[in-house]
Amino acid sequence: MAFALRGVPGLRGLHDLRGPAAVALAYTLVQLVLVVPGTGLGWDETVYVSQVSPDVPAAFFSAPRARGITYLVAPAVLLSSDPAVLRSYLAVLSGAALFLSLAVWRPLLPARVLTVAGALFAGLWVTVLYGPQAMPNLWVAYGVLIAVGCFLRAAASTSAAGSRGALAGLAAAVCGVALMRPPDAVWLVFALGASALVVRRWRRPALLVVLAAGALLGAAEWLVEAELRYGGVVPRLRRASEIQGHLGWYPGALLDQLHALDGRTLCRPCGPEWRWPATGLWWFLVPLAVAAGLVVAVRRAAPAAREALLLAAVTGGVLAVPYLFLIGYAAPRFLLPAYVLLALPAAAGVSALAARGPVLLGAVACVALGHVAVQYSVLDAAVERSRATRAAFARVAEQLRAEGVRPPCVVSGHEAVRVAYRLGCSSRQVGGHDHSLTGGALRAAARERPVVVLVAEGHPVPAYAGDWRRLPLQPLPGLSAFRAHLAPMPSFSSTVRQHDIRKTTSNRPSSG
């Protein structure tokens, strides 16, 4: 198996991208068929989407978050409040982004390796599940794949025009990563910057300048917000660490990430139970495939292709470090940027193995089929949970709407963000990391608008809501017994106020 560094493909070279294009198209269609129909917004998604929704007050935006994904979803959210519109928009966009990020690597690696790499990445249940979701991690993955590819092309370019184009792509990609998740951009810049210093041929000041400039430009909004809302970058980082359970040395996070592969989208903590160990078998195959790909690259590949696979493996490993060892909980989406880079050397290894004869080709095909079957079993269960969650929140919203809870209104307590979004209300909390008002202020608000406090079974009623009417609610996922405490409804003597309420109610968003 031979690799060669080729020129940038023009129109004549587009046929080389048919494999990656087919993978990207299949990835989009799978999302549209299996994930988009009937799924609603998760808690994090609701926070991001509410920032630009014209029908719903913005939910509290905590210190660890960045607004990149909000900007990305804004066109669809402004067009419609229907989650299906947002899901379809992101499904198409994520498929296009997968193709673009693979195409950047075409001058560096053979089309068959890129096709296999795209299939390995797009075949993961977590990649398919988050393709149409308003979450930043998948877009960070595309950004880092483009960034590493453009870095290599800029370092290898012998023409001024080619160098300028690759540097512009590198700047844009790093900027996009920083806009989505500034901490990930720091690790990316560290990996690529250190590589530029270690490899003599890559010691170009322009690479370091572009890396720094792209990261600063992308993180500019986050940095300004840190100054305005938190009093500086350090206080915001400190607050972000508190919300995430105090970042530090957590070697057990690696095991949590392994356990989370059984379909749990968030483990905080995962606990010792591993419900379906078969879902994690592929994790043990990845290092073997990556090692095989690197061995093939060292022995047979052209120097440029060898460097490309080595840098992809190193950068992918660096991006995985914080989520495997430095955070005390797990979510499979955190590792998407590492997976997409490791897919390149893994694809080289799988391709080399499959080319060694029909027996090995058959073995690879059998393993691939088993892997896909497991991945889509996990995906199906995750999607069904999302659909059930959407239906449950819709029932709760209808219950509260029937009790007169309509905009302008305030919802507080357990799952306030998602319930408020479906009612068109504000979500405000008296405690926790999104503390934004006092109990007295909430009671004062109840004199002007409907106010609801949501309480899970086993939790005491807050003192400020102790005399409010109790309403048992339909169960929500994870909360078998759930109730609302409704403040006495304010009397609106003004016909203008009544008109405002009717007008706001008529514009409320669909339950999603």
UniProtKB/TrEMBL annotation:
The chain crosses the membrane at residues 21-43, 86-105, 112-131, 137-154, 185-202, 207-224, 281-298, 310-330, 359-379. It comes from Streptomyces venezuelae. The keyword Cell cycle does not apply. This is Integral membrane protein. Keywords: Membrane, Transmembrane, Transmembrane helix. Residues 493-512 are annotated as: Disordered.
